[in-house]
Amino acid sequence: MLKLEKNRIEKKLPHKNISTMWPSNGLEAVACCPICKSRDRRLLHKNLKDQIFFCAPGEWDLCQCSACNSAYLDPRPTQDTIHLAYAIYYTHKSFISLSHSPASGIRRLRRAMANGYRNWRFGTDFKPSTVFGILLAPFIPGFRQVREHEGRNLPRVKQGARLLDIGFGSGEFLDFAQHAGWKVSGADPDLKAVQINLQKGFDVRQGDIFAFTNHENTFDAITLSHVIEHVHDPRSVIREAFRLLKPGGVIWVETPNINSLGHKHFGPFWRGLEPPRHLVLFNWSSLQQILHDEGFHITRRVTRLGMYRRLAAKSRLIACGDNPNFWITFIDRFAGMIANLHCKINHERTEFITILAQKPNC
Ligand SMILES: [Zn+2]
């Protein structure tokens, strides 16, 4: 674990330090693991604070289940008060870069290559595009991985197929999926995000997956990008997704991995913890287990490389309150290369868990 003194953080972030407490009547005890219900656990991190958005009061203890090794806050905010943790507008960062601004030279070529791959893989019709994006993709794994992730590793759409994106945030994936031919719907708790995407003409509702409860056996795909760690009862969300999907439909889930190299190295400063918005943190096995328990067949485990360096930079910002200097960044780049090699051999250590699963046909 990175050896950084806690008082160093306090010293560097005096104006950002959250000193007020969470309302005492807005807390609930979590006596057992939300994933496997085991009561055996150990204290993983104590007195964590919101050092990302600096808007959530309180200090938080993170426990780790001895049975399934998932981690969870205890106590945690109640459903009635969790909105206090989202006082600053919060949305899901999109990894999709669909700039339509003019470009020339290398930038235009890179854009054309990306569009060439997107159009071939997902059925979009972005321009400019070039067939070199398809031909060269096998030789540039990072390029292909990013493009695949933009489409959430989904199969190419069939005519009239419906997709539901939970926690659509900015709505950029709704836009991408619609370009790919999906008939898209979405749910997000943020009213502003809903209003913006209603104006774009999308079928979106305020709330969570239960906002579409009258749509049994309706969707061909449901996506949850960095959503499952925010909910009080992840199992009920997976169960509802199963109910909403048609037989043969797929679910795509991505969430931070508590067993990642980043968490191992940065400990309480790891960006993926994000207390108290992240209530539950999975590992590969525990996420696969609840998907399996609720009836899904795991069809693909996606190993996303290159994420260590990105999370290392953000984790150092949490630890030090400042961007790392050139040499630390250089070291993290090198460590990122080692992390990539490590994760190629052992995907259990990736920063994120990314899984595709299917509802059986019968
Ligand atoms: Zn457990």
Describe the structure.
The chain is of the alpha/beta class and 362 residues long. 33% of the residues lie in helices and 19% in strands. The chain has a 7-stranded mixed sheet with strand order 8-7-6-9-10-13-12, sandwiched between helices. The relative contact order is 0.13. The N terminus is likely disordered. The structure holds zinc ion (ZN). Zinc ion binds next to loops.
What is the overall pLDDT average?
90
CA-CA gap between termini: 47 Å
* Strand residue percentage: 15-25%
The ligands found in this model are: zinc ion
Number of helices: 11
Order of helices and strands: HEEEEEHHHEHEHEEHEHEHEHHE
Q: Give a quick account of the main beta sheet: strands, pairing sense, barrel closure.
A: 7 strands, mixed
Q: Rg, please?
A: 21 Å
**Can you tell me the residue ranges where pLDDT is under 50 for at least 5 consecutive residues?**
1-17
The tally of strands reads 13
Secondary-structure-based class equals alpha/beta
Strand order of the largest sheet: 8-7-6-9-10-13-12
The level of helicity is 25-40%
Shape: globular
In brief, what are we looking at here?
This protein is of the alpha/beta class. It has helices spanning 6-12, 105-122, 132-136, 141-150, 172-179, 191-199, 234-244, 261-266, 284-293, 307-320, 326-345; strands spanning 27-28, 41-48, 60-65, 71-73, 76-77, 162-166, 183-188, 203-206, 219-225, 245-256, 280-281, 297-302, 352-358.
How is the topology of this model organized?
Layout: H1 6-12, E1 27-28, E2 41-48, E3 60-65, E4 71-73, E5 76-77, H2 105-122, H3 132-136, H4 141-150, E6 162-166, H5 172-179, E7 183-188, H6 191-199, E8 203-206, E9 219-225, H7 234-244, E10 245-256, H8 261-266, E11 280-281, H9 284-293, E12 297-302, H10 307-320, H11 326-345, E13 352-358
Parallel strand pairs: 6-7, 6-9, 7-8, 9-10
Antiparallel strand pairs: 1-5, 2-3, 3-4, 4-11, 10-13, 12-13
Helix pairs in contact: 2-4, 10-11
Bound molecules: zinc ion.
